Each structure stands twice: as C-alpha cells, then as structure tokens.
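Handout for the seminar on molecular recognition.
Each group receives one record of this type.
Step one: identify the two inputs.
Step two: read the structure output and locate the region that could contact zinc ion.
Step three: write two sentences on what you found, then compare them with the reference statements printed after the record.
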Amino acid sequence: MARISLLILFLLTACADPGPSDPEPAQPDAPKEPAAEGGDVHSFARPDEVAMRHLDLDLDVDFESRRLIGRASIDLERTKGADRLWLDTHGLEIRGVTLGDGSEATWRLGDEVEFLGRPLEIELGPDTETVHVDYASAPNAGALQWLEPSQTAGGEHPFLLTQSQAIFARTWVPCQDSPAVRFTYGATVRVPEGVMAVMSAGGNPTERSADGAYRFDMPQAIPAYLLALAVGDLEFRAMGDRTGVYAEPPVVKAAAYEFAETEEMMVAVEALYGPYRWGRYDLLVLPSSFPFGGMENPRLTFLTPTVIAGDRSLVALIAHELAHSWSGNLVTNATWNDFWLNEGFTVYLERRIMEEIHDRGYADMLALLGRQDLDEQLADFGPGHADSHLLLDLDGRDPDDGMTDVAYEKGYFFLRSVEEAVVRERFDAFIRSWFEQGAFESRTTADFVTFFDKELIAGDEDLASRIDADAWIFGPGLPGGGPAVTSDRFERVDEARRAWAAGEVDASALDVEGWTTHEWLRFLRGLDKPVSAERLAELDTRFELTQSGNSEILHAWLLHAVASRYEAAYPAIEDFLTRQGRRKFLRPLYRAMAESGDLLPMAKEIYAKARPGYHSVSTGSVDTILDWQG
Ligand code: BES
Ligand code: ZN
C-alpha cells in the first residue's frame, strides 16, 4: 500500500506548493500564498529557515478597550544563511519590532489573505537570536471572547477566554501558528482587580495575587494552537494530587463533584499508553458561551459548563480532552489536513478510558452514538465526497471546514477496525510506540502510513490483506461498512421505542429503569420526525424532558419540539439558546428552525437576543444558517 499512498501524498503536496511559477505574486518577495515549506498551507511561517523555539509574553489585559497589549519576545533557531523571520498575525496592531541587541528591526506586514491574516516579515541581523514584537490585539480578535459581568455565572466580574485552535493564536500572539512548530513559553499577565489569570502552562495560581500580575512557565514545547489564557473570577478546588478544577464560585462545587473521576481516568490511560508527561492536569469550567465542549489546552483543559449534568453522565468529554495529552498534544497533527491524527486517535483513547471507568458495553454505547453522527454527516456529504477522506485537502479553505465527524468518528472506526484485525494487545503496543516515538513532535498522515507499514504490517501479507488502510485514509465513506458494533442496552431501547412509536404501549408503560443519558439519546434520536405534538406531550408529561437539566438530552428533545411544532417547549428553546453558546447545540437547532420555514422568524428573534452572548466561532456558523445581516 505504501507506494500508492506515497504517490497520492506526493501529488497533494505538489499541488499545495506555491512554487516560483505562481502567477502574479502580490509583492516582490512576498508569497501570495502561505509558504508551504513545512507543508502547512495555513501558515506564513517558514520554520525550515527560522523557527521560533521560545516565546515570552508580557501582556496587559484591558477589558475596557478589549485588547491585549504588550510584547512577545521570540527566541529563534536559524538555519545557515536564513536572515528573515516569518510570523503569522491576524488583526494584530504591530507597534514596533526590536532585535535582541536592542536595535530597531526592519519589518513589513504582507497583504491580508482570507482566513489566514497577514505575514509579519522581520529582517534579522547576522547574530540575532531573539526578536521583540510590541503589539496589541484587535477588539474583535477571533480567539478572544470578552464577556460582560452579566454573561458570567457570578455576574460580578468580566471574563476573558481564548480559543486558539485551529488558526486563531495569531489573533492574540504574533507567532508561527502552525501545528508543526513547537516552542516553550513563559508569560507575565497583568489583570484588573477582582479577577485571576490562568494559562495552558505551569504556575497557575490558586489564589488571587496582590498586585494583579501572574507569572507562568511552560517548559514543555507546544504548538501555537495550544496557547491559552483565561481571566475571570475563578476559584480553585483540588480533586487529587495532580488534578483540580477552576470555575466561577457559583459553579466550582458542582464541577468538583462532576469531574471527580479525572484522576481515575489518568491512571487508566497511563496504564494503557504510557506516563502523563505534563505535570498537573487541571480543568477550567468557562462561562456558558464557550463555543466548544472542551479544548485540550495543555495542563488546563477548557470546558463548557453544559457537561455538568449532576450525575457524571457526560464525562466522556473529560476522557476525550485528557486523551489529547497523548494524541494531539504529545504527538501533534503536522497540518490541519492531518486533523484525524489528533481527533480520531483521541476518540479511540476516549472510549478505551470509558471502558476502563465503566465497561465495554458503556464504551460501545458511545461508539454507536458516534456512528449515528458519522452516518448523518456522510449522508449530508453524499457519496464520494473528498471531505469524507481521513486525509483532507483544506488548501485555500478555513481549517474549520475539516472539523467534521469524519476526523473524529471515521478516524475512530478506522483505528477500531485495525484493533479488531490484530487483537488488542498488539494494537495497544503499536499505539504506545506511536506516542513514545513521536513525543513532542508533529506527524503527517504520510508519517502514519510509514509507521503503520513498518510497525504493524511488517511484511505480514495476510494482515495487509485484511486492512485496507489506503481506502480508509485516502478514500471516501466507510470501507466495508465499518466495524460492526452491537449493544444489548441499545437493543432494549430500540424495542421500547418501536413499541411506543407503534402505539403498543403508552409513555406511562415505557420501562426506562436504569436508563442513562446514552439510552435517552438513543431513544430520542431514533424516533422518526415528526412525532405528533400530542405524543411528544405524552412523553413530556411522563418524563419532563422540556425541564431536563441534561444538555444533551434537552438538545435532542428540542429538535423534536421544532420538528413537531410542540409549542409547549418553545420557551425552553429560547432559554436553551440564550443561556449557552456551544456551537454543537446551536447549529442543529437554528438549522432545524430555519429549514422549517414557519419557525424562521422565531429563530431570528431568539438569535437577535442571544447573539451578543455568543463567541465568534458560533456566530460565524449561525450567521450563515440564518443568513444574518446583523
Ligand atoms: N480540539 C477539539 C476542539 C476543536 C477542534 C476546536 C478544532 C477548534 C478546532 C476538542 O478536543 C474537541 O474535540 N471537542 C469536542 C468534544 C469531544 C468530546 C468530541 C467538542 O467541543 O464538541
Ligand atoms: Zn478533540
């Protein structure tokens, strides 16, 4: 297989390379397209010439002007003859550039490129090892969300959060914003009275400092997309020797209860895949506008509060973000085309962790729910779609386009099918050595293919004939239909649903004894839409679904409410859409209302109220769905 895949890879890289024959360069010397030496079409950096190896940030957090203002000092590694540093910026106001010896540098901002921002080109002296960039971020920086006190749980202090993945680090730090470039970092951050700063680094405080200054140190090298900062009224609660949770005071107790299994998860994954290499593992619960479920910022996972269900039923998300400490943070996708190496591996690890914490049946329920998401995504794409390949081609596009269930769930099912072909012991050893050999490095899909051929197939023709890795990685859809997953627990749910839908039993006779969140999701998602509003009311009366405090169940339920025009739940739709901003919940609900036609005005009315509270990641998506002109 290696030969065919290498050929395909060669063709892909060849197309991505903006060679000297590029028509009409924007300016002499400036690349019209990002430099692709590192193979990363989403970065202007040329790390093969000059690479950043350490970053020291000195920042003031100004809530009034909604800016971070300060200096980024960057230590360099230079190859012989290279005399220029290329950094990524997006919306940054560059106030000056100084070389390590104190002299002013000659620098230039290149033209803006859609999605990517502008390259900052800095001329280096013969002995320059450090450059200092004085700058300010823009008030609308893509990574930053500035919250008013009223948008927080506590209601008294403002809040700032960053979300750097995939290419937003450059909106708050001038840097080589490519996952193929790693650097250590230190930071001094000054914040106003009453709030505390935390980062994806060592040195996170457990108390407020007297002078409002906080110092951080990150000795492990990370790619820029893992740079993270949050500022707010935070309280810390220890959960174990190396785990704890930060949250706003009204939330911290519930958070510590919800996530108490974190240490147990760490032990489970260490036993499978080797030691946790990052020191502490803490969690940060953000205000509800956080657009993602979680973000694997090293040492400090960022989390939506919507995972706090009260019964620990949604903590697979913790397992997921923790797993990134191996898949993603330790061994990092070299480009966003290789995103499946981060997320597919992580979903695989996540389910192995949940199997350890619960049992195989539990993990298989998660796998089946994931399979359902994937099937919907693939149906949406239609057959043969290139975005259903594991290896993506995001050249000229927003890397966000690659953030689909394909990377996550097709990636998972690929690894699971390999596991099934070789049996677990051998597969686990393979994964362990992937992490060991790739630790603190970046990997391309081509690297994976080479490693796979060498370490797993190793000339075994019989094995090679049973795994068509090429089809999974370079082809569309699910080769061979994917591994079969069964679940007794879901079979019972399916039978209950069938009987209820057929009118054989009414809601009061439904046997939901022992159902967890996952069974409820299976039940609700499997009900053909639309169910009549009367029958939804019947379920609601018995199970109080409109009042559910479980965000996943509520979300699945409200989608039925829309489809069935179940008016009793309309206030709950508005409430849900205004009190949290997780894109995964917003997109399907707004889309369902938009597509319904008659509920579009209601969707717009809700959106007008809710939009100011959403992160730009979420408004970016919902604006399109609602054709919002603002
Ligand atoms: N790293 C991702 C979040 C992400 C991906 C942010 C790409 C920006 C660009 C994180 O690990 C993740 O996958 N979060 C999921 C939860 C998970 C359990 C599937 C999410 O936020 O929904
Ligand atoms: Zn992830």
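Reference statements: The radius of gyration is 25 Å. The pocket of zinc ion (ligand 2) is lined by residues 320, 324, 343, 346 (CB under 6 Å).
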